[in-house]
């Protein structure tokens, strides 16, 4: 059971109703709610003093806050989170909102890029907030690739496609990588990437890795059998060939050259594994998510919230997302079905096109 569910389950009916009415009133007006206002809307007739005691208890729990000493209460970020998780009643999409979205994103919406631009405009218009649209990843022949280090745990890959499309993707680089190693990886990939899609390049890299492992196995087998070397961690991707001291006494013709060849192949294998890691950039997402205030680093400074939902292609694979950004007192019950419906509509249109 989540912390929000636990607190809600421990509340009595009066406390739960007072909390719900305060949040709903705040989301509607943005103003603090006083005890006298609540006495007129509560289902049971109680005094303003009783309501004030309940509000003080809710404030002690961290769910309400008082902006001024004598003012009413407003929900805290924790209170909004609990309301969204446990008390939010999501309404049906209104007929007018549905019609506006259908009209904007109809079957004659043009190219996918133009259609997604209209998605943003439609969401902003219907929700009266800022919209967020994450577009599908481009999958066509690549002309050029570049890696840019932004921080020790953040990097940007710039993909230039043969059709002129340019795409930037943020990712977390493999541990130990430096700006220099990223440049080397980009130089290596640009030598073989033109005319191929990203998926084709990944398959080619894996094929080269498998070939290098086979070459090492063939060259190392005789040395292992003669006791000159031994495998450490055999059978895993991190297997290493440990050369023993007697390798310094190699006198047989060709043995020293073979050992150098193995070392070179190992270096090449590690380099290709590093490059393969750069190509394995994946993203995932699921369901409608609601981020409130500082829960999302993108919006913590502005005190905003984001309601976002992914959309899928015909193969039921998540390829993008749409969302609405607004104040923390967003009308979540109205916005969630708008975002959810828009995501389904975009997914259907993209699936129909493909």
From TrEMBL:
Pfam families xref list: HrcA (PF01628)
Top-level division of the source organism's lineage: Bacteria
Signal peptide: none
Entry GO MF terms: DNA binding
InterPro entries: GAF-like_dom_sf, HrcA, HrcA_C, WH-like_DNA-bd_sf, WH_DNA-bd_sf, WHTH_transcript_rep_HrcA_IDD
Keywords: Repressor, Stress response, Transcription, Transcription regulation
Any one GO BP annotation for this protein: negative regulation of DNA-templated transcription
Heat-inducible transcription repressor HrcA C-terminal domain residues: 115-336
HAMAP family linked to this entry: HrcA (MF_00081)
Family, per entry: Belongs to the HrcA family.
Cited function: Negative regulator of class I heat shock genes (grpE-dnaK-dnaJ and groELS operons). Prevents heat-shock induction of these operons.
Protein name: Heat-inducible transcription repressor HrcA
Annotated source species: Ruegeria halocynthiae
């Amino acid at each position: 059971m989540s912390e929000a569910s636990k607190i809600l389950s421990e509340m009595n009916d009066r406390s739960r109703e007072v909390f719900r009415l305060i949040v709903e009133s705040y989301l509607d007006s943005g103003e603090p709610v006083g005890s006298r206002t609540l006495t007129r809307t509560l289902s049971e007739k109680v005094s303003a003093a009783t309501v004030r005691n309940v509000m003080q208890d809710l404030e002690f729990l961290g769910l309400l806050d008082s902006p001024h000493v004598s003012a009413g209460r407003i929900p805290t970020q924790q209170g909004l989170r609990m309301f969204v998780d446990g008390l939010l009643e999501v309404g049906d999409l209104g007929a007018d909102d549905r019609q506006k979205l259908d009209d904007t994103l109809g079957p004659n919406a043009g190219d996918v890029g133009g259609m997604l631009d209209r998605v943003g405009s439609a969401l902003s218009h219907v929700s009266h907030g800022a919209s967020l649209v994450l577009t599908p990843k481009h999958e066509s022949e690549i002309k050029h690739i570049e890696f840019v280090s932004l921080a020790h745990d953040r990097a940007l890959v710039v993909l230039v496609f043969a059709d002129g499309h340019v795409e930037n993707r943020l990712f977390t680089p493999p541990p130990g990588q430096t700006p220099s190693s990223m440049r080397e990886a980009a130089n290596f990939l640009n030598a073989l990437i033109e005319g191929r899609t990203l998926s084709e390049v990944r398959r080619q890299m894996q094929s080269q890795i498998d070939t290098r492992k086979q070459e090492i196995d063939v060259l190392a087998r005789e040395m292992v059998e003669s006791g000159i070397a031994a495998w450490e961690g055999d059978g895993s991707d991190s297997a290493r060939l440990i050369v023993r001291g007697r390798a310094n006494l190699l006198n047989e013709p060709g043995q020293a050259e073979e050992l150098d060849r193995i070392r070179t192949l190992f270096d090449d294998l590690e380099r290709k594994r590093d490059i393969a890691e750069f190509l394995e950039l994946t993203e995932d997402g699921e369901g409608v998510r609601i981020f409130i205030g500082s829960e999302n680093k993108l919006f913590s400074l502005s005190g905003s919230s984001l309601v976002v939902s992914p959309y899928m292609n015909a193969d039921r694979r998540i390829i993008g997302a749409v969302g609405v950004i607004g104040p923390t007192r967003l009308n979540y019950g109205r916005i969630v079905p708008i975002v959810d419906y828009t995501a389904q509509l975009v997914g259907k249109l993209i699936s129909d096109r493909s």
